[in-house]
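Help needed: design a sequence for this.
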C-alpha cells in the first residue's frame, strides 16, 4: 500500500485538546484493517534493523502499535505507564510537559541491564516522553536501540531531544 494512503487515514484536528494544537487523529487508521496492517508492517520492517531485545510501549496509543510490533517481531513487550497504573514495584521518571510535569513508570523487573530496547509510540512531538523512557532504561544500565513512531512532528524537534539515540518515524509532518 502506498504511504500516501496511510497518510490519508490520519486526520488533522485543529485546536484539540487546546487551542493552537494540531492533533493527529489515528483512529481512522485503526478502523481500516488494510491501512493499519500496512502501517505496522512498515514499522516492523524498520524496527527489525535495530536488533532490539524487547519493546517498551508507551501509554496509551503506544500500546496499540507496541503490541502489533511485538507480535510481528516476536519480541517481549513491556508497558510504560502513567503513575499509579502498574501493580508491582516500579521505576519512576518525572518529565516536563507543556504545562507542568508528568511521571512515567515501568515494572522494575522489566528492564534487563544488558539489553537493547525499542521504544514504540504513535507520535513523537517534543520528545519529552521518549526522553523519560530513555532515562528509565539507562538508569538500569540498559540501552535505547531506537525510538520507533508512526509519525514525527518535525517542527517540535523531538528528535534532537533524543540525540544520540536513533529515531525512525513512518511519516513526518511539519505542522
Ligand atoms: P512528546 O512527549 O511531546 O513527544 O509527546 C508525545 C506524546 O503526546 C505521544 O504519546 C502522543 O500520543 C501525544 N501527542 C503529542 N502531540 C500530539 C499531536 N499533535 N497529535 C497527537 N498526539 C500527540
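Sure. Designed sequence:
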Amino acid at each position: 500500500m502506498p504511504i500516501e494512503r496511510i497518510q490519508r487515514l490520519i486526520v488533522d484536528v485543529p485546536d484539540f485538546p487546546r487551542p493552537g494544537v494540531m492533533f493527529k487523529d489515528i483512529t481512522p487508521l485503526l478502523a481500516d484493517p488494510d491501512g493499519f496492517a500496512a502501517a505496522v508492517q512498515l514499522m516492523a520492517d524498520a524496527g527489525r534493523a535495530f536488533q532490539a531485545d524487547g519493546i517498551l510501549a508507551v501509554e496509551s496509543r503506544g500500546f496499540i502499535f507496541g503490541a502489533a510490533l511485538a507480535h510481528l517481531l516476536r519480541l517481549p513487550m513491556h508497558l510504560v505507564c502513567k503513575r499509579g497504573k502498574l501493580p508491582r514495584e516500579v521505576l519512576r521518571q518525572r518529565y516536563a510537559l507543556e504545562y507542568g510535569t508528568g511521571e512515567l513508570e515501568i515494572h522494575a523487573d522489566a528492564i534487563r541491564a544488558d539489553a537493547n530496547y525499542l521504544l514504540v509510540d504513535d507520535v513523537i512531538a517534543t520528545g519529552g516522553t521518549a526522553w523519560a523512557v530513555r532515562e528509565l532504561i539507562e538508569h538500569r544500565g540498559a540501552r535505547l536501540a531506537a525510538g520507533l513512531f508512526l509519525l514525527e512532528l518535525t517542527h517540535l524537534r523531538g528528535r534532537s531531544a533524543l540525540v544520540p539515540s536513533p529515531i525512525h518515524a513512518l511519516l513526518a509532518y511539519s505542522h
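The two ends are 24 Å apart (CA to CA).
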